[in-house]
Amino acid sequence: MKSAYELAMEKSDDGDGKPLTDEQKEQIAEIDSKYKAKIVERKIVLEKSVQDALAQGKHEEAEEARKILTQEVSSLELKAEAEKDKVRNS
Predict the structure, then answer these.
(1) Residue 75 CB: number of other CB atoms within 10 A?
(2) What is the pLDDT, as a whole number, of residue 6?
């Protein structure tokens, strides 16, 4: 698994032939770190909800928590990419 820094280095060229500055690379790495932490936090909370629901035999509630988890992770990933794109284009 690659670190945020390694991923930022891979994206050091924004497609315009203009490499990213060191400051942009740092900002992108910070964004990656911030959103990874948010995703892990939501996974912990919602996976606990899934486990609790399953333990109580509430399969529909567990499935709903799984759907929410998927939606929230996807939303956070999209927000992270949008923020990184702003940095790349600045």
Answers:
(1) 12
(2) 66
